[in-house]
């Protein structure tokens, strides 16, 4: 069964969407002011082991976009819940989610997931919608993607598509991201550091792409920050040149921010 296509001809171009700034100058400049509301944003895990990081980044982005008092709806298939683990209230709170403003919906298959997503995006009382899937989802073809884009444009509710174990395919998304785990810096007293992500902007409609950042999530302020430098001491070779890694970088484990 396929999602019925919505008429796409003779439709006026969508109005400019309001944006929620990350607060990181280079990232906001690349995005034209921040992450657009009322648009579809795709997030892909770089590797299967990066599923938790992709989820953390997606949930953080959703939390950062919602206005106070608005709810984030997280839609998952049964397969996603089985492979990704059960979403729990304490995990939501640890990521900075407001108590009582996170709602998880689990559906049977991809067709039900897309139907639920379209219905949810029509509810303007929601702050954001996350749709999580694992593996290739044939039901999410270009027509279904455009249907989701139309729904989010009309309501202004942003949609974040969280894709695990999948390769990017053509879609109507405004932005497409790849997320990988990154080492965090310990807090004072050797407390565990903040969640840290290597994030790449793979695609942006009508905008620059191909840049990457290392970000950390501040749950108290509910915002991303540029991760601090690692503090690694860089040795000098006998000839006075900086010792580099195989990629020629003085910091082989750190990506350069755009």
Describe this structure as you would to a colleague.
Helices cover 23% and strands 25% of the residues. The protein is of the alpha/beta class and 258 residues long. It has a nine-stranded mixed beta sheet, sandwiched between helices. α5 runs parallel beside α6 (142-155). The longest helix has 15 residues, at 51-65. The N and C termini lie far apart (43 Å). Residues 1-13 and 232-258 have low confidence and may be disordered.
Summarize this structure briefly.
The chain is of the alpha/beta class. It is 23% helix and 25% strand. Residues 1-13 and 232-258 have low confidence and may be disordered.
- Helices and strands, in order, run as EHEEHEHHEHEHEEEEE
Give the spatial strand order of the biggest sheet: 5-4-6-7-3-8-9-10-11
Overall body shape: globular
SS summary, helix count: 6
Q: Work out the strand percent.
A: 25-35%
Query: How many extended strands?
Result: 11
Report the major sheet: 9 strands, mixed
Average pLDDT confidence is 83
Distance between the termini: 43 Å
Poorly predicted segments: 1-13, 232-258
Fraction of helical residues: 10-25%
Radius of gyration: 19 Å
Oligomer: single chain
Structural class: alpha/beta
Kindly list the characteristics that best describe this protein:
single chain, 258 residues, alpha/beta, 9-stranded mixed beta sheet, 6 helices, globular
Task: Reconstruct the topology from this structure.
Layout: E1 19-20, H1 25-30, E2 35-36, E3 40-45, H2 51-65, E4 71-77, H3 78-84, H4 89-94, E5 102-107, H5 110-121, E6 126-134, H6 142-155, E7 159-164, E8 175-181, E9 196-204, E10 212-218, E11 223-226
Helix pairs in contact: 5-6
């Amino acid at each position: 069964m396929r999602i019925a296509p919505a008429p796409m001809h003779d439709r006026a171009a969508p109005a400019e969407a309001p944006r929620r700034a990350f607060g990181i100058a280079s990232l906001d400049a690349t995005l034209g002011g921040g992450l657009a509301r009322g648009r579809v944003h795709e997030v892909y895990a770089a590797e299967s082991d990066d599923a938790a990081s992709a989820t953390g980044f997606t949930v953080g982005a959703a939390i950062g976009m919602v206005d106070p008092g608005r709810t984030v709806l997280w839609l998952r298939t049964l397969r996603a819940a089985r492979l990704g683990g059960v979403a729990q209230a304490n995990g939501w709170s640890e990521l900075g989610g407001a108590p009582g403003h996170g709602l998880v919906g689990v559906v049977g298959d991809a067709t039900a997931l897309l139907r639920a997503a379209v219905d949810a995006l029509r509810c303007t009382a929601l702050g954001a919608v996350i749709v999580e899937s694992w593996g290739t989802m044939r039901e999410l073809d270009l027509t279904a993607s455009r249907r989701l884009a139309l729904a989010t444009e009309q309501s202004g509710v942003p949609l974040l598509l969280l894709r695990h174990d999948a390769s990017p395919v053509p879609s109507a998304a405004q932005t497409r991201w790849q997320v990988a785990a990154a080492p965090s810096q310990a807090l004072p007293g050797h407390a565990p550091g903040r969640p840290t992500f290597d994030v790449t902007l793979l695609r942006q409609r009508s905008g620059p792409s191909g840049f990457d950042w290392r970000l950390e999530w501040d749950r108290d302020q509910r915002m991303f920050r540029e991760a601090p430098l690692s503090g690694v001491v860089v040795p000098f070779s006998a000839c006075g040149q900086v010792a580099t890694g195989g990629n020629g970088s003085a910091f082989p484990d750190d990506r350069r921010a755009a």
